[in-house]
TrEMBL record:
CDD domains: FliM. It comes from Priestia taiwanensis. One of its GO terms (cellular component) is bacterial-type flagellum basal body. This is Flagellar motor switch protein FliM. PANTHER family: FLAGELLAR MOTOR SWITCH PROTEIN FLIM, YOP PROTEINS TRANSLOCATION PROTEIN Q. It is a peripheral membrane protein. The lineage of its organism: Bacteria, Bacillati, Bacillota, Bacilli, Bacillales.
Amino acid sequence: MAVGDVLSQSEIDALLSAISTGQMDADELKKEDNQRKVRVYDFKRALRFSKDHMRSLSRIHENFSRLLTTYFSAQLRTYVNISVMSVDQLPYEEFISSIPKMTILNIFDVAPLEGRIMLEVNPNIAYTMLDRVLGGRGASYNKIDSLTEIETKIMKQLFERCVDSLQESWSSVIDIDPSFSGFEVNPQFLQIVSPNETVVVISLSTQVGDTTGMINICIPHVVLEPILPNLSVKHWMQTVKKERNEEEVQLLANRVKNTEVVLSAQLGESTISIQDFLHLQMGDVITLEKDVSKPLTICVGDQPKYVGQPGKVNKKLAVQIIDSFRGGERIDE
């Protein structure tokens, strides 16, 4: 019985029966249970990412898959659904062996991080997208080994624009500046890391119209190593408070104080017909709908802020502020 196996009810009954009849000794079972447990570890398949890291990568690429869904839906004008199916870590050589011999491989640089990441698109999905871009219904053709120059150019442009979605999905962890750096159809000709290097493979289940397939994102350990602390739950949950810089606060205050705004006092309002407006002449008087004894509304920009009363200062017209504008209504008393 291996460690961690779950016994069925019949197996439990048989075990209890064997102990009661003396066929098995309980003391021997205890001794066996107390022996040191040994777990087999494959050094060729080094696990360099914790479960915490894997969960964080899953969250990042769930956001990435939603952004890709929106992007491809707009580009292809058809039903597109992309979601994260799995997140695994394995040697790069094993990943290359698991994908088709002829497929669509897009390479991206992710400055300021070192190294490159790979976006592998299943041929069925890639050709469905190509057919939609060229005005077709979205038929899939498995002829990836005979890409024409026009098909190659279209596919490059289609996947090159994914960098915006990639940048936005990673913005909560690090500000990256991704750029499209390569396009290949044969994985054997593409060696972004050594065969034994551990990589994270995020598999995205993709549906374009009636066609389904996979999009795999391969991220080497060397790319993620500098930011592994940022992929922990502690980093995601904590709120970092930025210390106030007194110089910045003072600079902002000075700029606010020196900001120029338009201050206007409204003497009143009146409503006239278009015909009366067209016949206005010099000397005509327009009666305002406001009593001369009522305070004026003073606006800062387009927003009423104060009420005041008109007057003169040194033979110049002026307005004295007597109160604040309250309750979003004019004060007429």
